[in-house]
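This part of the workshop introduces the protein records we will be handling. An example says more than a description, so a record of this kind follows:
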Amino acid sequence: MSKTVMIVDDSASVRRVVGIALKGAGYTVIEGCDGRDALTKLTGQKVHLIISDVNMPNMDGITFLKAVKQLPAYRFTPVIMLTTESEESKKREGQAAGAKAWVVKPFLPEQLVGAVQRLCLP
């Protein structure tokens, strides 16, 4: 049975690259174009991991992460922040909100898949 990963990024090209890498590694992918859109797609189904951008319209990644952690079904879902932000203060804010990893763009798809494999819920 394949594991499900949600990708949240306002860039369609980033969602495509990440999606291709994950699907190639055997994952099922759900996409959200921003935090608000992604929250509407978290309807109680099992999501093994979430990859989220930080800077997005409507709802940014940190706000989205905090909202996810309030949902009982997703409280323990690991979240990887995939972002151009490399400032320590942003990373600390992300970790405080519950992010398990911080991957800075540009990234190697293999690196990201490796992080997903390490962090994915069983």
